[in-house]
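ok so I'm stuck.
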Amino acid sequence: MRPVIVTLLLLFTGLAQAFEHSTWDALLKAHVQWVRGGATSQVDYDGFAADQARLDHYLDSLGTVSEQQFRRFDQDQQLAFLINAYNAFTVKLILDQKPRPDSIRDIGSLFSGPWDQRFFELLGAPRTLDEVEHDLIRGNPELMDPRIHFAVNCASVGCPALRPEAYTAERLDRQLEDSTRRFLSDRQRNRYDADRNRLAISPIFKWYRDDFADAAGTLHRWLARYHAPLALSEDTAEALRRGILDLSFMSYDWSLNSAR
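replied:
not stuck anymore, here's the structure
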C-alpha cells in the first residue's frame, strides 16, 4: 500500500475515533459508590491511591490529546472528554495532598484556591480546573448545557454526585439527565417547604443562575421542568413556572465526599 494512502487512512481513522475512557470508567466503578438511595455518592480515595498508577496512566493519556485532535471530536465527545478530565484531575488534586484535606477548600492559599492550581496539561497547555469548567465548557456555546453543573464534581458532599462510571458520547444525554434528576431528588439539598410555600434549593442555582435562565428564560422555569424529582404538585409547579413561588438557598457542605 502506498504511503500516501496509508496516511489518508490514518487521518480518516483519527477523525472518526473517539477518545477511550475505559480506564477511568473501571476506576470509578471500583472506587465510587452510590449512597442515600442513589441521591449522591462516596469516593474511596484510599482505593484511588492504591490504583494511582492506573489513574496517572489515564491522566497522561488525556494530556496527549492536542487541541487539533479535540476539535475533530463531535460535540458529545468533546463534552464527555472535558467532564471526565475535570473529575479525574479533581481526584488527582485530592490525592496529591499530604495529609488528605477535610475539604477541597483547604487546598491552596487565600490568593490561589484549589481551582486556580495549574497542575496539569490539557489540549496542549497548562490548565486549572476553573479553566476547564468556565472557559472550555461554559465558555463554549456549543458545549454549554446547564446540566453540566450536576456532572462536574468538586469533591464535596454538597456537590452533585461523582458518577460511578465515565461519561461517554453515546450515553451523554441520558447520563446528564440522570445526574440532574438524582441531585434534584435529594431532599438534603433541594426541598419544598409547604408551611412557608417556598422552595429551598442548592446554592449552585444562585452561583450559576444565569446558566439556567439562559436555557429556560428564568431559573424558576428551568426548575419547573423538573417538578417531578423536586416532588412538587402540579399547582406548585405552575406557581414556580410563573415565578410566584419563593426560592431560598440552602447551605453548602464543603466537607470531602470521602467514604471514610
